[in-house]
Amino acid sequence: MLNLAIEKSKKPLQRLKISSRNALHKTICDENGDLYTGLWKDGKKHGFGTQEWTKDKVSYRGSWKDGRRHGEGILYGANTLFEFVYKGEWKKDKRNGQGIHFYEDGSRYEGAWKKDKRHGCGQMDYGDGSTYIGQWKGDQRSGFGKMWHADGATYEGHWENDKRHGEGILITKKGDKYKGFWENDQKHGEGKYSINENGLEFAGLWINNNFCCGVLEVKNSEAPIPMKLEIPKWTLRNSQEVIDNAKKYYIEKSESSAQK
């Protein structure tokens, strides 16, 4: 049988406060009106319990360890669009392990967490209808993953710091396809761009999203469909770098062809 001492709070909250520090189960209401009901150990929240933060209209229900959220738990918020804000694993008061999180803009993430950040493998369903499935690091898309954009385009390949970086494949809504290298979210390096409508293919060197040099091929047997193309106005920078990259590309291509 529990031996609990119950007393009225001296603060004008008109609530009961259980003062025993080593009780197995008790309810505490602090001067801010925040309320905790659950298990304690050595004067700290420890075990299963519920914490309500009245000012922020946020509550947590789950496991505690040494006064911090630790283990399985659910975080509820003031946003009534969803049943909960976060449901999953915690470590030292931070989301850590596997969990589901809902965001105010309607986005939803399910996957791995580390120190309150998306880290590892997970799926992000964005509020605009886009979806990403793949690897995360430090709350950013990093590693290998696939993105389904709301406009119908898809990208599958490598990411770094939330941007396309490395080798990857982009397919637009119209069926146009780019397969090659990316840097800082732009086509950069060797790559091939195929236009679905007329069969044109641009294969060669890309720099900062612009086709620099290479080969233009027509894959369709029929004549290309006439179309107007606006040539962008641009200024060549780092010309020596462009020349060096182009020379390197064609030398490697020639050596590769000679070995076949």
From TrEMBL:
Coiled coil ranges: none
Gene Ontology cellular component list: acrosomal vesicle
Protein name, entry field: MORN repeat-containing protein 3
SUPFAM superfamilies attached to this UniProt entry: Histone H3 K4-specific methyltransferase SET7/9 N-terminal domain
Function statement: Assembles a suppression complex (suppresome) by tethering SIRT1 and MDM2 to regulate composite modifications of p53/TP53. Confers both deacetylation-mediated functional inactivation, by SIRT1, and ubiquitination-dependent degradation, by MDM2, of p53/TP53, promoting a proliferative and cell survival behaviors. May play a role in the regulation of spermatogenesis.
Source organism of the structure: Araneus ventricosus (Orbweaver spider)
UniProtKB keywords: Cytoplasmic vesicle, Repeat
Keyword Repeat in record: yes
UniProt subcellular location: Cytoplasmic vesicle, Secretory vesicle, Acrosome
Pfam families attached to this UniProt entry: MORN
InterPro entries according to UniProt: MORN, MORN3
Claim: Phosphoprotein is one of the keywords in the record: no
